[in-house]
Amino acid sequence: MKFVRFNQSQLGLLTDDGEGIVDLTDRLGLTSDEPLVEYMEGDYDASEYVDADADVDVSDVTLEAPVERPGKVIAAPLNYENHIAEAIADKDITTDEWFSIKDKGYFLKAPSSVIGPSENIVIPFSDRRIDHEIELAFVMGEESKDVSNDEAWENIFGYTILLDISVRGDQDRSNRKSYDTFTVVGPCVVTPDEVGDPQSLDLELAVNGEVRQSENTSEMVYTCADVVQYASIGATIEVGDVITTGTPEGVGPLADGDTVDATIENIGSMTVGVEERDVSFADVDVQKHGQN
């Protein structure tokens, strides 16, 4: 099944042609502002509506992020060998030598950075390099702590596309990647039975029609379950948390007016616009005040 959140708090299923939505909200009696989380935590079954006629066209609604405010967005750094190579070669991407999740762990992105595919990416500074990164992500369907690799696979509810937008520089990753609109998630969450092998999916990102990133998830250093297993050591991953698995080579800058097309096999595609604020990072003045 392919779940979508639309028009703020409606939950639906995409039809097979991807053009219509079967509205589950009233059919299942969902009342939460986070209907997908309510669905995952409750005793609901949407499978009987898979073949129902569409209630609305996708073109007539606003597609939102599947989870509006996940408790956590957990992100794996440098998880494709070819991106590790380009990151080491380009000091704008990272000033570190090679490292892995095992070396430095994961990082967190602010939940407030999450948007859906109907919104634009907003570049916060006109004088900083802002890069795109396409990633396979997933939504957790079960609470997970100290889980095994097998348990990790079982606890994933479904898979989605995530754009990890990044300011390049020396600031901490969680700072540079947490500006508003810097975590684009969508267009849907696809259950594992329809995705197939998540470690064998083609992904592609194009900017203004030019393909910049093209890879298969088989090239990940750590699998989806590996990331969950590590992140759950001593920490509770909650229902609705979003976990993203890193990006392949080809990251590059975005500019005002760009159009970003992102596609992952068996999940779908989304098109997102880019706009820029007229703010210079060089002019930002952080005041230091004495103690009262």
Task: Briefly characterize the structure.
The protein has 292 residues and is of the alpha+beta class. It has 8 helices and 20 strands.
Task: Walk me through the structure.
This protein has 292 residues and is α+β, with helices and mostly antiparallel strands. It folds into two domains: 2-64, no CATH class; 73-278, Fumarylacetoacetase-like, C-terminal domain (Fumarylacetoacetate hydrolase, domain 2, Alpha-Beta Complex), CATH 3.90.850. 16% of the residues lie in helices and 31% in strands. It contains eight helices and 20 strands. It has helices spanning 25-28, 35-41, 81-89, 101-104, 149-155, 173-176, 192-195, 224-231, and strands spanning 2-6, 10-14, 20-23, 56-57, 63-64, 73-75, 107-109, 114-115, 121-123, 130-132, 134-140, 156-164, 166-167, 183-190, 202-207, 210-216, 242-244, 252-253, 259-264, 268-276. α5 (149-155) packs across α8. The longest helix has 9 residues, at 81-89. The radius of gyration is 19 Å and the shape is globular. The model has no long low-confidence stretch (mean pLDDT 92). Residues 72-274 form the Fumarylacetoacetase-like C-terminal domain.
**Runs with pLDDT <50, length 5+?**
none
- Tell me which CATH architecture of the largest domain applies here: Alpha-Beta Complex
CATH topology of the largest domain: Fumarylacetoacetate hydrolase, domain 2
Helix content estimate: 10-25%
Shape: globular
